[in-house]
Every structure is written in structure tokens, then in C-alpha cells.
Amino acid sequence: MPSIKNSVISNLNRQVQAMGANAIRAFDEEVSSVPNIIKLTLGEPDFNVPDHIKAAAIRSIEENDSHYAPASGSLAVRQAITDFLADRYDLTYNANHEIVVTVGATEAIYDSLATLLNPGDEVLIPTPIFSMYGPDVLLNGAKPVYLDTSANNFVLTPEQLTKAIKDSAGHAKVLILNFPSNPTGVTYDRKALTALAAIIKKTDMIVISDEIYSELTYNQKHVSMAELLPEQTLLLNGVSKSHAMTGYRIGFVAGPKRLVEKVNVVHQFATTAASNPAMAAAAEALGTPAGKVDTELMKLAYQKRRDYLYQELINLGFEIPNPDGAFYIFAKIPAKYGVDDHSFALDLAKKGKVAVIPGSIFGLGGQGYVRISYAASEIQIKAAVKRISDFLK
């Protein structure tokens, strides 16, 4: 077994040396060894990919669609993406010049940041938020500036954004928004987004608007930041959550031509292009009436699970911000644990046999909360509620 010299390890990228594994995955692995545990940890839909979408991937293979696609993605999937955005969110993009297909929305995040950032730049990140953004900022030599939104019902306010821009003294280049939110399930309505857009428009900042959960918005119509501020927004989305296609790894970036062309340069050097069969499946998912029906059926099932889980947890004494999207509930832990969400989550896993994710993993404002995924089956969710109730007693 080869062993690397310590002196070589010490010369690695300093940012990489300072980083550990993905904290969500690490905690999930830590508690997965508990016998008979019910896992409500990962954002992994329990649905299978619909048959007509799988058939599109199979056709791609059988028809020997095995050569390099254009770096920005096959024209078929780019056209399906533009049709999807126009139909759902009244957005207009040119499939030839304003769309880049990436290997999941995770690559879209990295490519966008790599395109925009220089050393010394700052990126404003409202928290609690998905734990990938900050490390990606650091890997690109910039500084993440975290804005705790827990006192504002977990949404960024115009006052908070104005102060952050002023405090940055011109260094803030990017604002990251993720809505509906992972981990809180909270989203922004048109009024809130309009107020933020008016402030950003006075600057040269770019918004990276990660709207991967947009199709899972329950009590209002999702409004995209790209509608309100198209000239300063890179819109990120994909099929992982809307069509239960996490393993297919198809995301995309949409935005102004001159900016997206530069994102595509980073993408080319990172991956060349996404997989052809996966793109064929994504084109079927996003570009057909059947694909739209698939999402609606999944959304109805998620909403039913959300309504049940939300009410049961409220009955057990948890405090929960309004989870109007995605498939997560962000629950405040019982008072006797204080804000030690990690201890609570470990106790619940080991004694209650239910796995959830500590809220502090998601940054400032997450302390004292846990994220509970209802992307699991109804049977599992009901069994988990019974176990949580027994554990609390």
C-alpha cells in the first residue's frame, strides 16, 4: 500500500487541508450503524425515476449516443430546459447561448463561483444554508460572509442585505440565495424578492440563485430571482429533486449570454460534458407533459407528508418555521438540550432510533435546531414520529 511523504501532504492546497468531509454525509454515516434506525437525514427522494424517463436514457444507449456532446449540453436538453423555465416561471432564455448543463447542481455551484471570484472578493451567504456553498467559496480563494437570518423567520431582509453590502466596502461580489431553503423549507415570495432585487440592482453584484427545490413549493407559486433581476442572476436548477433523479447528476446554469459563456469555460475544463443518457432522460423529464405530471404527483405526496409531520411535531412541542417548500422541516430542539443540537441528534439516533441532521451543520442560526427530511416514505415517517414521541417521554 503506497504511503505519501508528510512533506508532500503539507504542500497541498491550504484550503483543502483545512477542510473535513461533508458534514451532512459524515453525520449520516456516523449514525447509520445504529441497528434498526430510521433515517430522515439526506435529501434523497424515495420515489423511483418514472418509466418514460428511464426509457429515454435506455434509448440513448441503444441508439449509440456514445460520443462527446457539446460542452454546454445536448441541444435537446438545453431546449427542454428553456421550455421548462418558460412554462413554469415565465423566464426567457436562448437554448444556444444562455444555458449550460452541469453534472448536478453541485457542479453548477462550483462553476458559477469559479467564474465570478477573485482573491479578496466576498460572498454574502444567508444562513442557515446548505453546507456546500462556504467551502466552494474558500476553494476559489474568496471569503464567505455569513448572514444569520434566524431572527427574521429565516429570510434575508432588505435591511440586513443593505448593511452587509455597506460593511463589505466594495468587496462583496456575489449573493447566494437558496429557496425554497435547504434546511428550513422556508421560501421567498414576490414582495420579498422584489425588495432584495431593488438593492442589488444598484450594485455590480451577481446573485447565484439556487432554486433546485422550486418545483416543490406548496402554498404559493414559486417566483424566480431571474424574473426580477435577469441581468444580474445566475439561475441554478436541475432534475434531482423535481424528478427523483439524484443519481443521474443533471443540473444547469441559466443567465445572460456573456456570463454563461464564461461559466461554460470553467465547466469544459472541469468535466467536458455531462453524460448523454442522463441528458436524454433530463430532456424527457423537463420537456414533456408527462414529466410535468410526474412532479405534480410527487409534490402532492410530499405535501401530505409535510402536513402530517409538521402537525405531529408541533403536537410534541417543537417550534418550526413555516416549511413552504423543499422536503425538510427545521425543528427547534427541546429546551432541556439548550442549543446542543448535535447531542440531541446523537441521543435521538442511539436511544430513539431516528436519525436527523444537527442544525448547526448549516451555519449561523442553525444552533438548537435539527433538519428532518420527509423525502422518506409515509410508513417510515409515521414510525419515526412514534419513536420520537417515545424518546421525548
UniProtKB/TrEMBL annotation:
Residues 36-388 form the Aminotransferase class I/classII large domain. Keywords: Aminotransferase, Pyridoxal phosphate, Transferase. PROSITE patterns: AA_TRANSFER_CLASS_1. Its EC number is 2.6.1.-. Its cofactor is pyridoxal 5'-phosphate. It holds the Pfam family Aminotran_1_2. Gene3D superfamilies: Aspartate Aminotransferase, domain 1 (3.90.1150.10), Type I PLP-dependent aspartate aminotransferase-like (Major domain) (3.40.640.10). Transmembrane segments: none annotated. GO terms for molecular function: transaminase activity. Belongs to the class-I pyridoxal-phosphate-dependent aminotransferase family. This is Aminotransferase. It comes from Convivina praedatoris. The gene is dapX_3.
